[in-house]
Amino acid sequence: MDTTRIEMVMEQIRRRIAGRSLLPGSKLPSVRAHAKTSGVSVSTVVEAYDRLVAEGVVLSRPGSGFYVATQTAPLLLSEVGPKLDRAIDPFWVSRQSLEATDNTEKPGCGWLPPDWLPEAGLRRGLRALSRASGIALAEYGSPLGLPPLRQLITRRMAEKGIEAPPDQVILTESGTQAIDLLCRYLIDPGDTVLLDDPCYFNFQALLRAHRVQVVSVPYTPNGPDIEVFASVLAEHRPRLYITNSAVHNPTGATLSPVIAHRVLMLAEQHGLTIVEDDIFADFEHVPGPRLAAFDGLNRVIHIGSFSKTLSASARCGFIAAKKDWIDGIVDLKIATTFGGGRLNAELVLSVLSDGGHRKYLEGLRMRLARARHEVGAKLREIGIVPLLEPQAGMFLWCRVPGPRSSAQVARAALVDGVVLAPGNAFSPAQTAGDLMRFNVSQIGNSRVFETIQRSLSQSCSGDR
Amino acid sequence: MDTTRIEMVMEQIRRRIAGRSLLPGSKLPSVRAHAKTSGVSVSTVVEAYDRLVAEGVVLSRPGSGFYVATQTAPLLLSEVGPKLDRAIDPFWVSRQSLEATDNTEKPGCGWLPPDWLPEAGLRRGLRALSRASGIALAEYGSPLGLPPLRQLITRRMAEKGIEAPPDQVILTESGTQAIDLLCRYLIDPGDTVLLDDPCYFNFQALLRAHRVQVVSVPYTPNGPDIEVFASVLAEHRPRLYITNSAVHNPTGATLSPVIAHRVLMLAEQHGLTIVEDDIFADFEHVPGPRLAAFDGLNRVIHIGSFSKTLSASARCGFIAAKKDWIDGIVDLKIATTFGGGRLNAELVLSVLSDGGHRKYLEGLRMRLARARHEVGAKLREIGIVPLLEPQAGMFLWCRVPGPRSSAQVARAALVDGVVLAPGNAFSPAQTAGDLMRFNVSQIGNSRVFETIQRSLSQSCSGDR
After folding, report:
1. pLDDT tens across A361-373, in order?
2. Residue B83 pLDDT grade (very low, low, confident, very high; cuts 50, 70, 90)
3. How far is it, in rounded angstroms, from Cα B135 to Cα B148?
4. What domains, with CATH codes, occur in chain A?
5. Looking at beta carbons, which residues of chain A come within 8 Å of B56?
6. Number of Cβ atoms within 10 Å of the Cβ of B243
7. What ipTM is given for this predicted complex?
8. Nearest CA in chain A to B70
9. Chain B CB contacts of A323 below 8 Å
10. Alpha-carbon radius of gyration of chain B
């Protein structure tokens, strides 16, 4: 059928509605009448009317005809532009980053720009999916999730020394959902949970939803400060510790084998369970120590996702845990999300199985290494100093020169359309007022540096 | 590149590993050597090795070469076949249905077979997505979710008399996740929640995860028994009531305007909030009364999803709620799942905007009407009697003749590879021991009726 003619008919109707020659609630010309006056076929008008129905512009009343819809969608005015008045809390960076419009720069966000991700592989994967079985397109996933993807995850974990057969791997809708399910399974309201200081801000937001107490341990370049770790365990008896081992967010630090061993010894001694969040695993050049590898999934639960190096749009994460816990976690998964997102799992499997994906990852790691070096140098030029030189990943954790706090700098930059990530959003103990996380992949153009530099010497009132 | 040759090389390597002429950990022939001996190009061998790496069969050590992986994936033996020993609880139907293998029939499940769903539309949608912007493929969704899909949902709700502008619509990962978020937002552990008896079994499983007390009200062909409803509200003071208005699961009943009005009056009087789960909306021939339409999203929150008439593989649901509640719910959504599944939302939008989708839905409703009639007749022949004749949907809620309970019948059928849905899985008060839900779209072949008939006169021991 001729698409141009269909669109022409749609446009005619839309104009008549906009020009009020067809009022809300009034009947459209009959299909035959419209075909005659417009000089197009009946089937063209039918298709045009159907599409207008699908758009909600027109309503169909079977046996009667087509009518102009009485409700038209209001503009999404409330969603335009950054909300400048939000408190700087664990939600601040995520809301500002996720709400950012196309002309906002977001060096504060925690993901790569689309053109750093494997777009070609994703497009190939989607084309392959368009030819997949009806089951893949339409049915719920199985309780644990797509078996070949779980097998592949098992093999990828084995490369890092983690032994987890596929029946100990559960697919989830995301890495965040993986941690959420584990909190539901492992902790009760009022329990105490241990976090790193600083740590990924959303851990705090998530734990708030679980109504637990949060305690924290300073994170050093080699892992948690082990003396403080020991005393916090003795004093507060946390049930759970949530941490990143390989590429720590936000510092970029790497856990050392010595600290890993001591953490596990203390966990054993105090009955602590550990969730090791490994979503930055693919950024590593050489696999570092993993708590789950040393521990054999005894006290450690290992989680991951594909949102950092594959796609954040096709959400998919996983949990690897001891066999005894699988059934209980799966029951919770079904109760709270029913079957998982099979389509996303199929797409992730397709991209990961693509022979070119390994090369893409190698290229990405090199690109990130270059960007860390270059962005680090430019930040130093304006007085912002990285606390350490991460071996991998997209983050630089930096000290801002003052006298403005990083929250003040972030607010000032937001007015100019740049989303930054002030340190205290990451700090359960609020010890990072002069620190800030930068995503080296999101800071390519010079306007961003100019805005940051300007923001260093301005401030919004009323802020710490 | 020649795919056949690449696969040939992969097959050669796989055979040598299987035949133990290449042992785990040993080095593969160099790319050049293998190209020479096999008579293929170097690039063919490189691609074959890369794909074997992606499969996890082979490991790459940069600068050194390719090695046989030391771990191979074990078989997923534990996942094969139904688990016959599970208790008949709210998880029974979902686990058995979701775990069912290809040669299992599942008249107990709650979804349509793939060939009843809009496969062609989904395939078109995926092809369109493969050409979409990098942002659609790779980025997180915005906090509320894809704006044009929310606008479309607003227009669809308007057809049912529900006024909810797009900034009062939140996309979620699924209908189940929508209810889960609302429970998190609205209730505390220890609160009391009211359900229909019978009701969708997963409401009970979900509420168990929220540690609340469940009370129930008998569901009549016109809605909840309003006398009992009034006395339960007075006695137990539930904070929340979760129900289906349009096509009630499992009974297929439709809420009447009179009962709707009285439910809302009593809710107002007792400070009750109502979650109206409308995931079967697209099955209706004529829109029935909605609590959210009468109430104007004051005490009622309306939720829906696309898993029943579009795809359960591309998970996507939504919440429509009063403006005051949107920010709090979105904060919880970000804390527990971060950005939403943008890819699924894009696909759903694409299929819904397709001019042919309305015709597909009309055809589906007719097909279901025929199937309800035919399956109902065949069930009556073997003594199974529908309690009412639903005006829409895929379910028949039936009395089994006895003396076996429906749980006994379901266990016996499971042994023969047929998953049924015994009544008490749906009944918070356990009053449905002689009832059973049948999905008329999943009961096409005669083997299923033979198995059911045989199961009526058999039983497994030890069952109620």
Report:
1. 999 999 999 999 9
2. low
3. 15
4. 3-68 (1.10.10.10), 78-117+358-456 (3.90.1150.10), 119-352 (3.40.640.10)
5. 151-152, 154-156, 158
6. 24
7. 0.81
8. A158
9. none
10. 26
